[in-house]
């Protein structure tokens, strides 16, 4: 499925974005581990993408805070993961 | 700032945290509950089925005002291949009873209702408050929490960790190990809205009757997982989940998997013309008994998903969550009544009580299933295809005699897996099940 379709899905959701304070950061790296690269397809919100240089970057605006990326990269320590500040982030209407 | 000391702090306002907070507040304890969402439920995701028995033991008259969608009168289990499903359906008028056994619910609404009950019982509930750290005294006993909202430390005799599967507080404090990719499933879900009467005619329902479908097969593309479709009053919850480790290895994206499930010829007509209003993702702890972490320690205990209480075989979780929360609350109240401190030794009573309940008995019964499915991922892929082929051969009338058809079916089983393979699968499944 194309990236555009997932954006349509996420568009249905409510978020309160904590501007300028992303709750997930990818540590600087030259070559991503297989686990970090896997996030490009495994993240259910398509938050991860590969740059022209082959690095992996994250944009947390559509994040549903599931923790998949944290679980997958715990062994490599390539991302820093914390919950958004209280009240911020995804706000499920139905859940 | 003046420091108030609580009898108990509950981290999280999902089913387990609400059950714990409610139980303790009803017993007269001074309870503070902290929730990071804007409102209870705003961060929570479930299919969702409510198991009445677990809630009845906490709030006996919950049916009077809880936001319930439909009571379940029919259960369908579908083994799917790309074009078909082989189903087992059970529908009974016996489920149309005065106090129905299972309901579909919408979690964001249900959790708000439950939280209102918690506040009415006397607990203090603070939302939009993320717990950042556990506080300990010099000997390592947990004595409270730090949050991102409240200035100073919040102190209590016991901290109930009801922070969910992705609970960072307990993990970062070293109270339980990090989740392993093969012990946790990622589920994605959509809410599809349709007029009430369309849902009722599509699923053959009258009034508040509801249907649930649990599905497995080639829809998970060789990964360990299941899909579901639940009827709510004016919406259908549809979702699919597989082990996180499988998603990483198989290069499949969760939303593509969900879209493929939705467009399966057996599912598509059920969702036709619906309007999608939400897309959600959540982890489910599915490592089973062997993945249950330490549940109690000096000044703390873990309940619900934080305790890994999910019976993946029966798709049960919220009932284990509520029961573990209630039992935790009862244990703390029992210690208070006896004027005993919430030490590791005292709180160990929580684990003993859980062992005596269905929670640990069921978890232990299926302790071999997660490893079996992980090592035998063909079970969910091959057998649904074989079942479909067999049914197709058997039902198609084409001039071939029945004995030849029988031989074709047996031959296809043997070719696919071999006699030893078939018997081995049956043996391994029986052993893991018993």
From TrEMBL, chain A:
<keyword id="KW-0411">Iron-sulfur</keyword>
<dbReference type="GO" id="GO:0005506">
    <property type="term" value="F:iron ion binding"/>
</dbReference>
<comment type="function">
    <text>Could be a 3Fe-4S cluster-containing protein.</text>
</comment>
<keyword id="KW-0813">Transport</keyword>
<keyword id="KW-0408">Iron</keyword>
<dbReference type="InterPro" id="IPR012206">
    <property type="entry name" value="Fd_FixX"/>
</dbReference>
<protein>
    <recommendedName>
        <fullName>Ferredoxin-like protein</fullName>
    </recommendedName>
</protein>
<keyword id="KW-0249">Electron transport</keyword>
<keyword id="KW-0479">Metal-binding</keyword>
<dbReference type="GO" id="GO:0051536">
    <property type="term" value="F:iron-sulfur cluster binding"/>
</dbReference>
From TrEMBL, chain B:
<comment type="function">
    <text>Could be required for the formation of a functional nitrogenase Fe protein. Probably accepts electrons from FixA/FixB and reduces a quinone.</text>
</comment>
<comment type="similarity">
    <text>Belongs to the ETF-QO/FixC family.</text>
</comment>
<protein>
    <recommendedName>
        <fullName>Protein FixC</fullName>
    </recommendedName>
</protein>
<keyword id="KW-0285">Flavoprotein</keyword>
<comment type="function">
    <text>Part of an electron transfer system.</text>
</comment>
<feature type="domain" description="FixC-like C-terminal">
    <location>
        <begin position="370"/>
        <end position="434"/>
    </location>
</feature>
<dbReference type="Pfam" id="PF12831">
    <property type="entry name" value="FAD_oxidored"/>
</dbReference>
<keyword id="KW-0274">FAD</keyword>
<dbReference type="InterPro" id="IPR039651">
    <property type="entry name" value="FixC-like"/>
</dbReference>
<keyword id="KW-0560">Oxidoreductase</keyword>
<dbReference type="InterPro" id="IPR059103">
    <property type="entry name" value="FixC-like_C"/>
</dbReference>
<dbReference type="GO" id="GO:0004497">
    <property type="term" value="F:monooxygenase activity"/>
</dbReference>
<dbReference type="GO" id="GO:0071949">
    <property type="term" value="F:FAD binding"/>
</dbReference>
<keyword id="KW-0503">Monooxygenase</keyword>
<dbReference type="Pfam" id="PF26311">
    <property type="entry name" value="ETF-QO_FixC_C"/>
</dbReference>
<dbReference type="Pfam" id="PF21162">
    <property type="entry name" value="ETFQO_UQ-bd"/>
</dbReference>
<dbReference type="InterPro" id="IPR049398">
    <property type="entry name" value="ETF-QO/FixC_UQ-bd"/>
</dbReference>
<feature type="domain" description="ETF-QO/FixC ubiquinone-binding">
    <location>
        <begin position="208"/>
        <end position="283"/>
    </location>
</feature>
<dbReference type="InterPro" id="IPR036188">
    <property type="entry name" value="FAD/NAD-bd_sf"/>
</dbReference>
